[in-house]
Amino acid sequence: WKRLNASIWTRLFILTSIIQAIIGIFLEVRVLIRNNEIRLKIASPTSSDCDVSSSMRRMDRIEGENGVFIIFQGFQMWLCMNTIFKKDTIQLIVITVLNFICSAYSIVQISEIRIWRNNLCQGINISDPEILRYDLPLVIFLMTFATIMGFLCYKLYGDFGWIIYRRIRGNPVIRRIYRTYLIFVILLKLDVFFLLVLAVESWIIFSADQFSIKSEFSYVPESYSIFHYVVTSLIGFLLVLAFCSTKKEWKIGMYAFSALWIAVIIDFALILRYSFTEDTWYFFIAFLLVAILLATTTWVWGIFVLQNFDRGLKDVFNRAPDNPGAGQDPIDDDDEEGGGSNVILN
């Protein structure tokens, strides 16, 4: 609690992230409910005699995208709180980028619903999507809060960078090693959202009835489905293993992570292989490409971190600012505000 109240900027940062999550989820849920009501109307037997199966599947996917970004709002709030607790400069940059990407996607949502409406089978009478009422408020809100959060991240960046600089005693070698560690940790946190959510979503699709599987994927062998279930079950364990092994500089754990993580990369590559159909879900493809890039980067960065073991970073973790060996995290000091310094972790 003391860290959350360390300065006016930390308080504003946390408060803004909570407001963003609450209002963002509310506005996205409104869009989701609107989309679901439209889908139910065209599914009615009295709506039209034409084939609406393609439009139904497309709307199902749009609703799935709504669900993903509802989850994202909760994820960004957790990431913001974690950033304050850890005083992580790398996470500040990531939060800024993710918020602007999310706000940009809200514009894509408008294009998607317009394209869906224009491609709908003629003769189906549905009400106007009311984009100005449902989608535009979400766009304005997310862009406004992305800008506000970007400003707050900028204000916190200098303070956090100064704290880290003091912890590592300004040692340039340790600074590079610690930066590598921070990047790896944020990659693991991003994996929780991008990889785990996507893996579970694919699990649900694979577990659906045969019609649904053929709607979303080309033919999926049963052996691969089993492989995917196993890999999905391992992802959470591997993320925890990597984090703990890195913190303790446990080489065996990192070797195990590096070996098993290859299966995760292969799994997502195979999902991509089976995802190309006549009615391709482009958002899912884009999400998969990000997941594959993220999983590969995590694996490569894990090797970088492993190479830095026994080079002094563990001593920093075990050192309090004025009491070496106190066993405190190098960025856990509550008394250092940074004094507005602009020293950063380069």
From TrEMBL:
The keyword Transmembrane helix appears for this protein = yes
The source's domain of life comes to: Eukaryota
Where in this protein does the record put region Disordered? 323-346
Kindly state one GO CC term assigned in the UniProt record: Golgi apparatus
Q: Which UniProt keywords apply?
A: Membrane, Transmembrane, Transmembrane helix
Q: Transmembrane stretches, by residue range?
A: 12-33, 92-116, 136-157, 178-206, 226-245, 252-275, 281-306
Q: What is this protein called?
A: 6150_t:CDS:1
